[in-house]
Structure formats: structure tokens, C-alpha cells
Amino acid sequence: MSYEENPYDYLFFNDGLRSIDYVLVIQRSVLTNRGRIRRLETFVQNLQKFGFEFEKKTFILDADFEFILLHFREEKMFDVLKAFKYDLTMNCEIYNFPVNKFASFFKNFLLKPVKSDPLYLRAPDLFDGYKPTTLTPAERILAVTLILNKNRFGIHWYEFGISELIRVHAAHSAFPIHEGDYRWSKSGPLTRRQLLFEFGARAKRWFQLQPSNMIESYFGTEYAFYHDFMRMYTYMLLIPASGSILVFVWGFMTISFSQNIIAAEVCASDKLICPRCSSCRYFYLKDMCVSENVSYIMFNGVTQLFAILISIWSTILLSIWNRIETKNQLKWNVSFMEKDISMRPQYKHSAYYREADSGHLEAYVPIYSFLLNASITFLIMVVLIAISVSFQIGMQFLRHFLTIGFLSTNNSDNAYKSGNQVVTAWSHFLLAIILGIFLMIYQKFCYYVSYKTTEYENPRTFNEFMASYCFKCYILDFVNFYTTIFFGIIKGNVGLDPRSYSNSLFSQGCINEMCSLNIAIILFTIGFLRTVWTVIGNFIIPIIQFKLRKRKYENSIYSWNNLEQWEKDFLLIEADSNLITHAMLGVLVEYGFLTFFVSAFPITPILTLISGIITWRIDSYKTMKYYKRPNSRKIDKMLNFSLLLKYTTFIGIITNTLIICFNGKFLEVIMYTFFYNRESGHEPHLYTYKSKVKTSEVFSIYNFTVKEEYCFYNSPKEERSIETLEFDYYPSKQLLFIIIVHVVVLLHKIASLIIPVLPQSIIEETAHLQKLRRIEKFQLLERTVISQRREKLENERFKVKI
């Protein structure tokens, strides 16, 4: 088939009337025993009993493969969806919501067509975007998938479903067919796949709105919800990304001004700093002048204010997503969709049964069995967490000893050493690279183990299964990606007594005060590696797999354009059933980096925006070009993701506020500027190296001797003096934390009121349409009653028979 021809002509049986709704692939060389043949025959025969019709086609490139093209009559599809209690999109109240003038700027030709344009005439029904009058393509696939997943092929309890048929090698694969080629044609009708690829998947359209209604009609509501969230999330990230730029601009502009109080104090100080480990050397505080000035560019007074605004921004994002989700529920008629409470076959087989009050048998799991399964799952989770934490602790020890080794190799007789910051920075960068690569690989392993343990738990329904699986993955991602960063923050606030050094993890190996630059290096490296991993795993590897599949048949006399559509789809990559779930979990990890640690690394929003755009574009591109068409799912909302997003938001508020209050100099600088600067006499020291000890008492394996009598170290708990402001600001930090959290939560409540779940205009229009529908039903009922009354009167009219 040439992609310049009419693509719809090749989506039907030979009669040109019956559509191809699904494709079942068999491999003759694998059907070597009678058992597999019997299972396949039983499966197809049972489909025929449901009303399926089929045609057989041989693969033109390899006669060993045979395609069974399936057709399911539309009236049967209506019956199936009604039996499974699915509400149809065609019955929705409102399908197209009005878009404000600002959003219309981001519309493309697909969402804002010009009817006089020749392109519009090639697909007027698709460009108009009117409410469907029949089943959408995704609903047709859903109806077929429901039957295929329930269809039996044997007498045993587990012999049902297309997945099990493929597992026992009675079939090779099964997939719904794409609507023609993705490539743009110069003439003829256009398909949804062509339009979605051209106006939704291309990288040059990253800033334009996604055609969510068309995505829903082609892929189903699960994909549509995901793309709608990514669209909203990407646009919302433009705000904090702009704030990150302002933080940097402010830092560059004020680096030599009076606002850079801490760096000025460091550069002018003659303090001797104690060795940070037993084999380290002394250094002067002014040696950290460069690192403090670099740190000020990112961590200045505006950074703390920006971090507070990010917490407020996250609550607004939550309210906007809730609104978009509710609007989509109305558009796709899933607001009142009944939740699937049917038992999973695996649960149904392994459960015990008892007689209920109604007289029917009900399935249940004994409490001892539930506790056993839960205990084993909990132990497995603990082991996975322990492995991750142990590796990260091991990397900290490795970094610690590498730093010690680098700092103690040269001039061991010299008690003073400069350039410690460069060595420490390189050791942290190396740590972050090794750790990032490990976490990427370990995440895949954790997801696999989580899925298997959830299968072992054997939840009752599919929704419970996915909720348990998502929760496990989220917990493991939380531990894997955030433990090292939290450890760095804690280490920046812990000081060790140089009189009794040991090889502790908390030995100061920081580039600057509070370890802020160390945390920035780790966050940047892990974020960059995650983006590279996404590009490799979701883009480069699918391309290689697709090329290898095509290369297998490159010596054939037939070209790609000679293949039928089902033959082309057969060579595409199989889409993972949890593709959207894993994509949303990845978004939550990036969102956690942003909301948790923006005060520790204010460039995070820019990195998150770039990563979000790349992930979003790659997901759209690969799904339209390299992946088989996935089985559609009709869900009322992304319940698990929305809950985890809410939890992440509120955890981020608390974490971000803690870092602002206890891991920075925000409050101290304010008090210095507005209070102590006006006093005469001493000036308070803002730097943390406040505690001092005699150099003769410092523990060192080299027994260094220096001319200074005292050296200083970072331990705010010891030898506090009136000069350090310690008595003034430490209780105030606790009060500041309480104030910020309560203010942000209050603003979240206000945002929920300002941004209602639905606009008032939509509520009024929906109520008006419902009123019209009630009037129409009442008028129909009234006409029916009047007609029946007239017929009854006609039959009862008095007549004289002669």
C-alpha cells in the first residue's frame, strides 16, 4: 500500500464493508502439537459464537506467519459496552469547551482550522471536532479487548484471555490496527494517525496545544489524561523556569554589592579552619572566597523567596489539574462511570468461598493468608530499600576516602592546604555519575519486583492491583532518588568535634558552607542522567529495535510500501501495558526534585522544564511512529497519580520550608540587615564556623603543628556566643517554619476557591442541557400517554352493532 493512496481502503475486509477491528497473529512453525492447535481453534470458535467474523491473510514477507483479521459488528459492540457499564462519549453533555483568548494563541490548524483552506477539505469531520455520533475508534477497540480478555480456550480456570493464549504459544501476538501510515500524504483523505503525528507528535509543535479529544478517540482516556497533564504541566513550568533565570540574574547583579554579606565576611576573614578529617589539613576561611561567591549566584536572598513561591505554585498546579480532570470527565462522559469491582480471575481462583446472607457464595481471603502475603511483601520492600540505602551509604564512604586520599597524597608535611574545594567537587561529581547510573538500572529492577510482589499479594480487583503497584513504585523511587540529597542536607547541618575525629559519614567534605554546592552537583548530575536515560530508553532503543525488525526482511522483493497495514503494524514495537503508569511515575520523580529541593538548587525548574518537554515529545513521537496501537482503556480519572501528586505537593511544602528555615541563612541575613546593622560595636558573624578549639588538641594522624593557637569548626551547638546571633534566630526558625507552612496551606485553600472545579459558564450550560433533555423526555412521555389514551378511548367508544 502506498501512503499516497486512500488509507481507509486498506482497513477493511476484501468486501470493503467490514472493518478490521483487531489482528491475531499465529506462527505455523510454533503450532507443532495438537494441544496448541486445539486451544487456538477453541479460542477463535468461541469468538465466532460472540459474533466475530474473520479473514485469514499470509504475511507477504514470511509465509510462516499468518494473520487472522477480526471484525465485530457495531451493534454487538454497543451490547458489550452496555453490559460492562461503560458510558459512551457520544452521550456526553458538552464535548467542546470554550477556550480563552490566551490559550487560543497556542492552537494549531488542527484545533483552529480554516474552512477555506484545501487541507480542511481532506478531513472535514476530523477538523470540525464535533461530538461523535457513534462509537469512537478507542471504544471499538475497548469492546473487542473486553471480549478477547474474557474469551476461553480450555476447560481449566486459567485457560482464558488473549494474553494467556500468547503465553502458551498458541498465538504469536495480537494488536489493534493503526489507521493507515503516519506519513503525511499530499492528497486524499487524512486519518487521525496522520493528524496526530503532524500536529501533536512533532518536536516543532512542543509549545502548541494537544488535540486531547482526538487523542481520546484514538487511544482512549488513559492516554488523553496523560497528555493533558503533560500539556498543563509544561506550560506551568514556564513560570518557575522564569523565576530560576531571575534568581541567577539577581545573583550576578548583586554579587559585589552589600547584599552578599556572607561572602564578604568569608573573603575578609583570617580564621583558621580545623581539619575536616583525621588525615586532612588546616585551611583559612578566606580560601573559600571563590566558592562562596559562586554559591551566592544561586543561593541568595531571592532564592528563599523563590522557594516559598514554588510551594504556592505547586498548590495552584494541583487545583488547575483537578479542574482539567473534571472538565475531561464531562467531555468524555466518564464522570459517573461505575468503578470496576469485578474480581480478577487470579483472585477468584485462589480465594475461599462462604455463603453470604443472600444465599450466594462470596469470595474472601482468610486473615492469616492476608497477613502472610502482606508480611512477605513488606519484607521484600524492606530488602529493596536496604539495598538502595546501603549502596548510597557505600558511595558516601567511597567519596569520603577518595577525598581523604586526594587531599593527603602531596606535601604530607605541610599543615596548610588550599584547593580543597576542587577535589571535593570532583569527588561529588564522580559519586553522582556512579549513583545516577546505578539508580536508573535499579529502578527497572524495583519495578519488576514490585509487579511480581503485587501479583503475589493477589488483590481482589484490577484497580486495587494498580493502586498497590503504583504505591510500591513511588515509595522505592522516593528512597532511591532522594536519600542522598536528604543526607547531604543533614550533613551540612552536622558538625564533628576535631578533637575526636573518626571515619564518619558526616565528616565535612563540603565545597562550601551548608553543602549547598555539593547538593547542586548531585541534583544536576542525576537530573541530566535521567534525561539521557529517557532519550536512550524511550527513543533510541525503540528505533534500533524497529530497524532490526525491518532489516530481517530487507532482502525481500517487496518494499515497505507494498505491505498491508496489518503487516506494517506487525513489525512495530509492542507497547508496554504499564507505559503510561511508568511515565507518570517518572513525572512524579521530577516533580519531587522541583518541589522538595528548589531552595537547595534553584536551577531545578529549568532542568525539569527541559526534561518534561523531551519526555512529552518522545512519548508522542514513539507512540505514533514506532509502537503498535495500544489497547485502549476507559477510566474516569488517573486516581493513583492524582493522589500521589497531592501527597508529593504537601510533602514538598514541608520539605522545602524545612530547608529554607534550617539549611540556609535566610533569617540571619534579615536580622543582620534590619536589626544588628544599626547597632554600634561588634558585628555578628553569619558564618557557621563559630566554635573554636586549641590546635594542640586537634586529632590528626600527621600531628600537624601550626602557628595559630585556635582553629574554628562548624558545630553550632558548642561555645555559642552573643556574636553568633544563635540565641536570637534559632527559636525564630521554628516559628518561621510554622508561619510559612500555614500561609502556604491557607493560600492553597484560597486557590481552590478562586479556581473552581468547573467554570460557572460550564456549570450553567450543563444545567441548561440537562433541563432541555428532561423537557424532551417529559414531552416524549406525554405524547406516548396521550397516544395510549386516545387508542384506549377509540377502543372503548360506544358502538351499535346491527
From TrEMBL:
Residues 12-211 form the Anoctamin dimerisation domain. Residues 215-766 form the Anoctamin transmembrane domain. Its main location: membrane. InterPro entries: Anoct_dimer, Anoctamin, Anoctamin_TM. It holds the Pfam family Anoctamin. It is a multi-pass membrane protein. It comes from the Eukaryota. The chain crosses the membrane at residues 233-253, 296-321, 370-393, 423-442, 521-544, 593-618, 639-660, 735-758. The keyword Transmembrane helix applies. GO terms for cellular component: plasma membrane. It is found in: Cell membrane; Membrane. Keywords: Cell membrane, Glycoprotein, Membrane, Transmembrane, Transmembrane helix. GO terms for molecular function: chloride channel activity; protein dimerization activity. Belongs to the anoctamin family. This is Anoctamin. It comes from Brassicogethes aeneus (Rape pollen beetle).
